TrEMBL record:
This is Mrr restriction system protein. Residues 184-312 form the Restriction endonuclease type IV Mrr domain. One of its GO terms (biological process) is DNA restriction-modification system. It comes from the Bacteria. Residues 26-109 form the Restriction system protein Mrr-like N-terminal domain. It holds the Pfam family Mrr_cat. One of its GO terms (molecular function) is DNA binding.
Length: 336
């Protein structure tokens, strides 16, 4: 009995010696997470966090580390690893909240060492598209440069007001990119209903929920013979003034051209309509924008994928609050 106890204590001592006191980097967690998922099993995020945490063999001190929000640092980094591996196309989501290794992930797995860096992501089309969309969204913010790891690093290590605001902006950019992906993966009918919800949230057509439910059923006119109109929102109870909607669920590499826009304007003339909104999950060609801003400027508004997801964030459509950050300052009036 004594021998067995001493053997168990010896193994525990060896295990403690093998434990790591320093927190693995984001690149290390990328590699560790992909290797763990290499068995092909589909798993929930929390299952991945639990398993990868165990594989990291961290000391109690390292496991106790937290970020300013109070979240476990190790679990925070594993969550970012899952997100970045998904953005690079190394993981897929077969179901909501479930990750699984992709064919691309299996192909690169034999080459993965102790780390998996963004430089190794850069050859992947999915990652390139992700960076391009982030660059597009951030272009209006003083020519911001995309650095995918800047968000988790800033959230963990700094607490300045400007950094906090910048981190929220970047997190919302990532959320908007995910929104756009979900819209593109939905059916055309779902996208048309989403567009109607956005316009209603903006105040067009009133706020009555029963009327909205009716509108979502009745306003979908996008069928054969619809004349290019996908939906109608009444600006007054009698329908004297209406907004006519065209919604195109296109992929990122399939921009809306002038023929589609011009066809919608023709449909507006056929309805004797004075207002039209054309929304897409893609973008518009220069010719399409020139036409809308020229001949059709008094009749038509174009909304591309970036603008649409920005409106969804601003008006709370398809999203919900996750956490509220409050920045406090001294109340000078209190001390007078």
């Amino acid at each position: 009995m004594r021998g067995r106890d001493e053997s168990r204590k010896s193994r525990q001592s060896v295990n403690l010696k093998n434990m790591r006191d320093t927190m693995p980097s984001f690149d290390e967690f990328n590699a560790l997470t992909l290797k763990f998922m290499g068995d092909g099993q589909a798993r929930q995020v929390n299952q991945i966090k639990d398993a990868v945490t165990a594989l990291a063999q961290l000391s109690p001190q390292a496991l106790a580390e937290t970020i300013p929000s109070g979240e476990s640092k190790v679990r925070h980094r594993i969550a970012w690893a899952c997100s970045n591996l998904y953005r690079a196309g190394f993981l897929v989501k077969p179901q909501r909240g479930i990750y699984q290794i992709s064919d691309t992930g299996r192909q690169i797995l034999p080459t993965v060492g102790d780390t998996l860096t963004e430089r190794e992501f850069e050859t992947q089309p999915r990652w390139q598209q992700y960076l391009a969309e982030r660059n597009q969204r951030q272009g209006d913010r003083a020519g911001a440069v995309v650095q995918a790891t800047s968000v988790p690093a800033l959230v963990e290590e700094q607490d300045l007001e400007s950094v906090a605001i910048g981190a929220v902006d970047k997190l919302n950019d990532d959320l908007a990119i995910e929104l756009l992906r979900r819209l593109r993966e939905g059916s055309p009918a779902f996208f048309e209903r989403a567009v109607i919800r956005v316009l209603r949230a903006m105040g067009y057509g009133g706020n009555d929920e029963r009327e909205l439910r009716t509108l979502l059923i009745e306003s979908h006119t996008g069928r054969s013979g619809d004349g290019g109109i996908d939906g109608i929102i009444k600006l007054d109870p009698l329908g004297v003034q209406n907004i006519y909607i065209q919604a195109k669920r296109y992929g990122a590499g399939n921009p809306v051209g002038r023929p589609e826009v011009q066809g919608f304007v023709g449909a507006l003339y056929g309805k004797r309509a004075t207002r039209g909104v054309f929304m897409t999950t893609s973008r518009y060609t220069p010719d399409a924008r020139a036409y809308a801003e020229g001949e059709a400027q008094d009749r038509l508004v174009l909304v591309d994928g970036v603008q649409l997801t920005t409106l969804m964030l601003n008006y709370g459509v398809g999203v919900q609050p996750k956490q509220t950050l409050t920045l406090l300052e001294i109340d000078e009036d209190f001390f007078e």
